[in-house]
């Protein structure tokens, strides 16, 4: 197989990305350290970011991560003393059963894995090992040796190899603890891993599943590739094994769902996570946003999932299909982004009517493109378009508004007066007949005909309150990947400026996932939800942040906001109004920001879908120093609970 002349080896690409990332990071740190320069640059930020952000969008260079680990992830003697003091205050100490399956594990890695367990600061654990018929004599010798010296270690030997699911079930059968913790035979736990799990169990008795963040470790024990995960997201779990490492389950929960299923090897953990989370519900799933697992890679001996990736992806698809079938959801499951999955949810027949709400004033050039895409290049069969005309005066705009009304799907509402996006949208919504409302800016350009069907398929789901989509700048780079709370005090768009083909950290730019908010430039929701929250706040948030406020009100109902990359459009951002942070708009923008802070407070600083290990100075997954979540042992009360 030949390569094109433009092909660059992956190792060289990673090295180049690391180098560029470090240069841009240095510039970013310099600006942060000089507030006057930062303020001076702010008015042109929207012009600069789309060019520089692709080099920073989610890529964490090894050198940066190693520096961060040294500064933030090293346990000191004082830390250990604080943990032990905190453990002494626990009202009870849960027994944690570590379930491990071994098979031909290289001797140094097996010894290191067990040693990392024996060095845990929290000592109330047992190791339940099932050796799956290893022929290498050192495996038996090591297990016998350690079991003889440590009564917490229990070993069962399977006479015939049954593979990972059967072996894990054998290990599970040895467990006596109320909680089961899954650990691979060649990976490592940091010394505080079981302490953090036990503390979470003590603090949250309602929990049935607890998962943590993870990173990778190479053959020289160098850490890299951290996955700083969001809090539990059932849609992201459909696309990938979000829980993965390190995950703890109530033992009775694992038993109730039948343990590991044979025939699902390579995706057995994902299959278990899907069945267990469905059984216990999202409220019983807890996330500890700390790196508490080191997943060994590049050891010279590849795991099953590394050597049979195509089969693992197919098996994961079967697990997802079973999960959806059990919930009576007749969705299609498609591979996406190489190793992940896309769930295509159904749209009923006949399709529900969608009322598209478009505020506009003049700018016929933008509106014409938007309407052409809606009326001629969108394959959804049931739409009505309500154009909220905010006093257009230009002849070409007036002519366009007159002409489009010849299409029975289009209505023009005359709404003159000062521009108030929330008021215009509320008035259009009041005239809408559809069960689904689609808020749409006049500067949106349709790319693909199936975009609206994708958005409606999620908007009609009973647990979903609103749906956002992937918006691109005209140059093809990312403009909206969901809204991260706390950026610029209120919220900012995720990974702005990423190249269209960039997957983002662990593929999240290619996966359906939850977000705290999405932009009203293109937002779909059920009319019943809109009415339940009272629409947009036109009195206090006329222009800015009314979409964030809307989404937070929806989430307060217990509904989720989702962002889909499978509805993709161009957004000529603010082309018809100008930007809020400069000129005469700045004072009004500041006033509306102050209202949001007063209204939502700490909620804006604790986005469940954006790790506290990332700074809030931007939404590009830059590491926070220190992390925004303090370790529990530094904040635990000094008295008994």
Automatic annotation (TrEMBL):
Renumbered residue ranges of the record's region Disordered: 621-641
Keyword Transferase: yes
Pfam families: Glycos_transf_2
CDD domains: GT2_RfbC_Mx_like, GT_2_like_c
One term of GO molecular function: transferase activity
Protein name, entry field: Glycosyltransferase family 2 protein
Keywords in alphabetical order: Transferase
Domain Glycosyltransferase 2-like: 97-255, 355-476
GO biological process: single-species biofilm formation
InterPro entries: Glyco_trans_2-like, Glycosyltransf_2, Nucleotide-diphossugar_trans
Domain of life: Bacteria
Lineage start: Bacteria, Pseudomonadati, Pseudomonadota, Alphaproteobacteria, Acetobacterales
Gene3D superfamilies given in the database record: Spore Coat Polysaccharide Biosynthesis Protein SpsA, Chain A
């Amino acid at each position: 197989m030949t390569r094109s002349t433009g092909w660059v080896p992956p190792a060289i690409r990673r090295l180049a990305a690391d180098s560029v990332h470090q240069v841009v990071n240095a510039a970013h740190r310099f600006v942060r350290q000089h507030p006057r320069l930062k303020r001076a640059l702010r008015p042109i930020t929207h012009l600069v970011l789309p060019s520089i952000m692709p080099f920073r969008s989610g890529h964490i260079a090894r050198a940066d991560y190693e520096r961060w680990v040294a500064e933030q992830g090293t346990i000191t003697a004082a830390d250990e003393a604080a943990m032990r003091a905190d453990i002494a205050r626990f009202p009870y100490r849960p027994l944690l059963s570590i379930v491990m399956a071994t098979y031909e594990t290289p001797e140094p890695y097996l010894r290191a894995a067990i040693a990392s367990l024996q060095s845990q600061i929290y000592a109330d654990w047992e190791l339940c090992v099932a050796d799956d018929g290893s022929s290498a004599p050192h495996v038996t010798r090591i297990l016998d040796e350690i079991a003889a010296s440590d009564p917490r270690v229990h070993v069962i030997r399977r006479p015939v190899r049954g593979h990972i699911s059967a072996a894990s079930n054998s290990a599970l059968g040895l467990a006596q603890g109320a909680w089961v913790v899954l650990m691979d035979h060649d990976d490592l736990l940091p010394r505080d891993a079981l302490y953090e799990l036990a503390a979470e169990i003590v603090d949250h008795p309602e929990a049935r599943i607890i998962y943590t963040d993870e990173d990778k470790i190479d053959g020289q024990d160098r850490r890299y590739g951290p996955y700083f995960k969001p809090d539990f997201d059932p849609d992201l779990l459909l696309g990938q094994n979000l829980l993965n490492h390190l995950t703890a389950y109530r033992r009775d929960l694992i038993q109730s769902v039948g343990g590991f299923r044979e025939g699902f090897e390579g995706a057995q953990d994902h299959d278990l996570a899907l069945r267990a989370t469905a059984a216990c519900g999202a409220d019983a799933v807890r996330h500890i946003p700390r790196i508490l697992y080191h997943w060994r890679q590049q050891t010279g001996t590849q795991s099953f999932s590394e050597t049979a990736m195509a089969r693992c992806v197919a098996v994961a698809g079967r697990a997802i299909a079973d999960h959806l079938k059990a919930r009576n959801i007749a969705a299609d499951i498609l591979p996406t982004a190489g190793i992940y999955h896309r769930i295509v949810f159904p749209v009923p027949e006949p399709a529900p009517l969608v009322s598209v709400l478009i505020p506009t004033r003049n700018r016929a050039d933008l509106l014409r493109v938007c309407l052409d895409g809606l009326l001629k290049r969108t394959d959804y069969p049931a739409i009505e378009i309500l154009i909220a005309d905010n006093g257009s005066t230009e002849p070409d705009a007036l002519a366009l508004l007159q002409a489009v009304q010849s299409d029975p799907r289009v209505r023009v509402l005359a709404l003159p007066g000062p521009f108030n996006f929330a008021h215009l949208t509320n008035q259009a919504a009041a005239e809408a007949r559809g069960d689904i409302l689609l808020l749409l800016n006049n500067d949106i350009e349709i790319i693909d005909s199936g975009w609206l069907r994708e958005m409606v398929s999620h908007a009609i789901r009973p647990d979903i309150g609103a749906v956002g989509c992937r918006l691109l700048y005209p140059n093809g780079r990312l403009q909206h990947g969901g809204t991260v709370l706390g950026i610029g005090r209120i919220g900012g768009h995720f990974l702005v400026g990423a190249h269209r083909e960039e997957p983002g950290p662990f593929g999240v730019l290619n996966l359906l996932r939850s977000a705290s908010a999405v932009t009203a430039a293109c937002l779909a929701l059920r009319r019943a939800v809109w009415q339940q929250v009272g629409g947009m706040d036109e009195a206090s948030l006329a222009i800015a942040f009314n979409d964030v406020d809307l989404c937070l009100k929806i989430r307060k109902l217990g509904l989720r906001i989702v962002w889909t990359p499978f509805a993709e459009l161009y957004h000529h951002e603010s082309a018809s109004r100008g930007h809020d942070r400069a000129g005469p708009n700045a004072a009004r923008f500041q006033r509306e920001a102050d209202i949001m802070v007063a209204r939502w407070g700490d909620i804006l600083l604790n986005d469940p879908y954006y790790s506290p290990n990332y700074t809030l100075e931007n939404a590009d997954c830059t590491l926070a120093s220190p992390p925004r979540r303090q370790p529990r042992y530094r904040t635990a009360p000094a008295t008994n609970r």
